[in-house]
């Protein structure tokens, strides 16, 4: 097992570096880096303009929905201001994009996985404005959901006990109930406008996360795939056997029984399961139910950030 583990790691590193060198040769051939640089900046401008048109649509009457006019205008202008800042930032950084791609392409000699990880970081950098929009919308939506849940407990004569982490009974006077009713009504009628902005920017964020997830899964697949073991199973299957089997050659009455012993090769699924190189899994630890619950209450979702246990 130790020999197979080292052989799988060595072959994976060699294949990774070979694919990275091929990628580097492709990037520096026929001025492909210049072509990518001249394509990337207009693409970023196009995305920013599409977001601006989307915000203009949200500031009107999206899908015929009746929104709160004042809050809609405030949120729309707030996000439009950030888009204008982002366009200025793109134009400021456009002269350096080709140099960044040129030096970043040299990292491909360290392996295809290194280049894919760098691409994931570049995607996160170029979509930072979408991440900011998602954070702003999620925080505002979560604040309103928390306020509505607290005021709903007020109507039922209960309150949240932070120290004991439970809901206790509590008596409120008439003034507190009146103020709570006013706040509950305001938050409830402002919630659809905030929820629409949160929904749109969450969908945009999920698209970026999905693309980064494909890159992370590709890196994890290249690092963990037991290529040496699979090649050994294909070329010399007797080297990976899970047992033996006997086949009857001669079973005539009055003669000796002749048996042929054959190696029973390991199944491909067993090879992958047994000799797969353990890596840091990039898959989220939360279940789909937990993920949907976090999205519903407005909690920020970080798919590849795993919570660590803190000790005193």
UniProtKB/TrEMBL annotation:
Pfam families: Gpi1
Keyword annotations of the record: Glycosyltransferase, Membrane, Transferase, Transmembrane, Transmembrane helix
One Gene Ontology cellular component annotation held by this UniProt entry: membrane
Transmembrane segments: 7-28, 74-93, 100-127, 133-155, 176-200, 206-230
Keyword match Protein biosynthesis: no
Annotated GO biological process: GPI anchor biosynthetic process
Keyword Aminoacyl-tRNA synthetase attached: no
Protein name per the record: Phosphatidylinositol N-acetylglucosaminyltransferase subunit Q
Annotated source species: Austrofundulus limnaeus (Annual killifish)
Lineage: Eukaryota, Metazoa, Chordata, Craniata, Vertebrata
Gene: LOC106511642
């Amino acid at each position: 097992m130790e020999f197979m583990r080292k052989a799988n790691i060595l072959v994976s590193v060699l294949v990774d570096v070979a694919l990275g060198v091929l990628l580097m040769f492709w990037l520096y051939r026929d001025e492909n880096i210049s072509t990518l640089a001249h394509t990337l900046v207009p693409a970023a401008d196009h995305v920013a303009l599409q977001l601006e048109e989307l915000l203009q649509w949200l500031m009107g009457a999206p899908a015929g929905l009746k929104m709160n006019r004042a809050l809609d205008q405030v949120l729309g202008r707030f996000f439009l201001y950030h888009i204008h800042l982002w366009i200025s930032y793109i134009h400021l950084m456009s002269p350096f994009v080709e140099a960044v791609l040129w030096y970043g392409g040299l990292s491909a000699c360290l392996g295809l996985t290194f280049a894919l990880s760098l691409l994931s970081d570049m995607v996160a950098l170029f979509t930072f404005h979408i991440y900011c929009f998602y954070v702003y919308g999620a925080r505002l939506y979560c604040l309103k959901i928390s306020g509505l849940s607290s005021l709903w407990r007020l109507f039922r004569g209960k309150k949240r006990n932070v120290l004991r982490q439970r809901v206790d009974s509590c008596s409120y006077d008439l003034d507190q109930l009146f103020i709570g009713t006013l706040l509950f009504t305001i938050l409830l009628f402002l919630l659809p406008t905030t929820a629409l902005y949160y929904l749109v920017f969450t969908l945009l964020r999920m698209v970026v996360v999905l693309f980064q997830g494909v890159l992370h899964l590709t890196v994890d697949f290249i690092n963990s795939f037991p290529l040496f073991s699979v090649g050994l199973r294909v070329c010399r299957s007797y080297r990976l056997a899970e047992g033996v089997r006997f086949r009857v050659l001669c079973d005539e009455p009055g003669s000796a029984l002749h048996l042929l012993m054959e190696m029973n090769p390991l199944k491909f699924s067993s090879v992958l399961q047994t000799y797969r190189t353990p890596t840091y899994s990039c898959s989220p630890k939360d279940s789909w139910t937990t993920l949907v619950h976090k999205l519903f209450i407005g909690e920020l979702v970080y798919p590849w950030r795993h919570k660590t246990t803190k000790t005193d």
